[in-house]
Design brief:
Layout lengths: L5 H18 L2 E6 L6 H10 L8 E7 L4 E6 L1 H6 L2 H16 L3 H18 L2
Parallel strand pairs: 1-2
Antiparallel strand pairs: 2-3
Length: 120
Amino acid sequence: MRGLTSAQADDIRQALALAERRSGLRFGAFLGAPVGGRRHFAERLHAALGDEADKAVVIFVDVAGRALEIVTGESARRRLPDSACRMTAMSMATAFSVGDLVGGLLYGIGTLGEQAIARR
C-alpha cells in the first residue's frame, strides 16, 4: 500500500481481516494507478483471486485519478447489492475529497463488512 505509513497500512489490513472474519467474504483493497481502464483493471484484480473471486469484494482506489471501483463476486453480490456498494462508495468519495484517504477506506471496508453480515 504505497503512499501510506506503516501504521495506516496496518490499520487497513486489520479492517480487511476483521471484515473477512465477521462476514465470511474475502475482502481486498488496492491503491494505485490502473493499467488500462479503471473498471476493467478492478475487474481483473478481482478475477485474479481465482476460486475466491465468487465470495470476494475488491476495493480499487485510483488516488491520482481520483476514482474508486468496488467489484463483487456473484455470491458476495447477493449480500452486497450494487445499491449498497454505490452508497458506500459515495461516502468513501466524500472522505477522499477532503483528503481523508485512510478514513474513507476504513469506513468503506467496515460498512461493507457490516452490511454483508446483516444480509447473511
